[in-house]
């Protein structure tokens, strides 16, 4: 791999190596009716695919991987915009709001909770 390289490319190569060496990598995460396919970067609510932007998907993936933990807004900013220190933090609120609208089609399923003054919590158990 030649420097400089993208972190996403390194991550993809490492995942491929682990897959080929028969190491176990969880490829899907499920929480209630929500299914997240980590390999295909695809999300579905029940049988319905969710039309998520790349940033919405990355937020959902991060929250699900850190389920039942409060994730500060700053950490989400670092995940989405690692090289941009001047990005407006309200962009996270907007993205989480859009993500909630797409997920909240079911009255009984509201997985993303705001913990005031601390961040966001994916409050569903993920498997």
UniProtKB/TrEMBL annotation:
One of its GO terms (molecular function) is transcription cis-regulatory region binding. GO terms for cellular component: cytosol; protein-DNA complex. It comes from the Bacteria. Pfam families: Trans_reg_C. Gene3D superfamilies: 6.10.250.690, Winged helix-like DNA-binding domain superfamily/Winged helix DNA-binding domain. Residues 26-124 form the OmpR/PhoB-type domain. Keywords: DNA-binding, Phosphoprotein, Transcription, Transcription regulation, Two-component regulatory system. InterPro entries: OmpR/PhoB-type_DNA-bd, Sig_transdc_resp-reg_C-effctor, WalR-like, WH-like_DNA-bd_sf. The keyword Disulfide bond does not apply. This is OmpR/PhoB-type domain-containing protein.
């Amino acid at each position: 791999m030649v420097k400089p390289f993208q972190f996403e490319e390194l991550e993809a190569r490492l995942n491929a190596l682990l897959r080929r060496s028969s190491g176990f990598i969880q490829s899907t995460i499920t929480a209630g009716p929500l299914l997240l396919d980590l390999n295909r970067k695809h999300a579905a609510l029940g049988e319905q695919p969710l039309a998520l932007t790349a940033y919405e998907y990355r937020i959902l993936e991060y929250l699900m991987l850190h389920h039942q933990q409060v994730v500060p807004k700053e950490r989400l900013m670092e995940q989405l915009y690692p090289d941009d220190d001047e990005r407006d933090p309200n962009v996270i609120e907007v993205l989480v709001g859009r993500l909630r609208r797409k997920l909240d089609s079911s009255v009984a399923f509201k997985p993303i909770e705001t913990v005031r003054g601390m961040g966001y919590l994916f409050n569903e158990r993920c498997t």
